[in-house]
Amino acid sequence: MELWVPDLARAEATFGWILTELGWAEHQRWNAGVSWKLGGTYVVVEQSPAVTGPHDRMRAGLNHLALHAGTREDVDRLTRESEANGWKLMFADRHPHAGGPDHYAAFLENSDGFEIELVAA
């Protein structure tokens, strides 16, 4: 998955923190981007000069990235630590069951409007 971002440093701070916490390792780095890898999957954030506007998860394209985050306790810890690392909790009135009564997850958004869902096993 490759995400084009308006500010690489901001994206690296938020996505880098959460991906590293989930066990991903930095894979590649270049002037305009960085990637993290876990097993056979990798995520890229790149500040491309071809970006034409801000990210809007409500428009066609990526709504959010959902990732397995371990146990419910892991999700709770990451949720507590997320604000200090550039994320804010979405759907706080329904957390941690915003995805339904049998779904335990945290839905987080960074300042560029990218949403991530941390799902408990």
Which key phrases capture this entry?
33% strand, 2 helices, alpha/beta, VOC family protein, 4-stranded mixed beta sheet, 121 residues, 21% helix, Glyas_Bleomycin-R_OHBP_Dase
Could you describe the 3D structure shown?
By secondary structure, this protein is an alpha/beta fold. The chain is 21% helix and 33% strand. The protein has two helices and eight strands; from the N terminus they run βαββββαβββ. It has helices at residues 8-21, 72-82, and strands at residues 2-4, 25-30, 33-38, 41-46, 64-68, 87-89, 105-110, 115-119. A hairpin with a 4-residue loop joins strand 7 (105-110) and strand 8. The chain is globular, with a radius of gyration of 14 Å.
Structural class: alpha/beta
- Large-scale geometry: globular
Largest sheet: 4 strands, mixed
Strand content: 25-35%
Report the radius of gyration as a whole number of Å.
Answer: 14 Å
Q: What share of residues is helical? A: 10-25%
Number of strands: 8
Determine the number of helices (DSSP H or I, runs of at least 4 residues): 2
